Structure formats: structure tokens, C-alpha cells
Amino acid sequence: MKGTEHFKNVIQNYLDERAQYDELFAENYRKKDKDM
């Protein structure tokens, strides 16, 4: 796995975890038009 792929996976996991306990963040995280 390339370093950039690993970085993307780490960030994605963090965002998924944060969305589980931060309702305000989760509301914005679920939007389809967000840019990552």
C-alpha cells in the first residue's frame, strides 16, 4: 500500500469514528455534496 493510500485510510477511519459520537459533525459528514 502506498503512503498516500494509507493516509487516506487513516483519515477516513477517523472521520467515520468521529461521526459516530459527534452528531453535528455526522450531519455534515453524511451530505453527498461534500468534498474530501
Short account of what is shown:
By secondary structure, this protein is an all-alpha fold. 72% of the residues lie in helices and 0% in strands.
Describe the structure.
The protein is mainly alpha-helical. It has one domain (2-32). Helix content is 72%, strand content 0%. The chain has helices at residues 3-21, 23-29. The radius of gyration is 11 Å and the shape is flat.
Main sheet properties: none
* Tally of distinct domains: 1
Structural class assignment = mainly alpha
How big a fraction of the residues is strand?
under 5%
Gross morphology is flat
Please tally the β strands and state the result: 0
Report Rg: 11 Å
What keywords describe this structure?
36 residues; mainly alpha
Summarize the topology.
Blueprint lengths: L2 H19 L1 H7 L7
Helix pairs in contact: 1-2
Protein name: PcfK-like protein
InterPro entries: PcfK
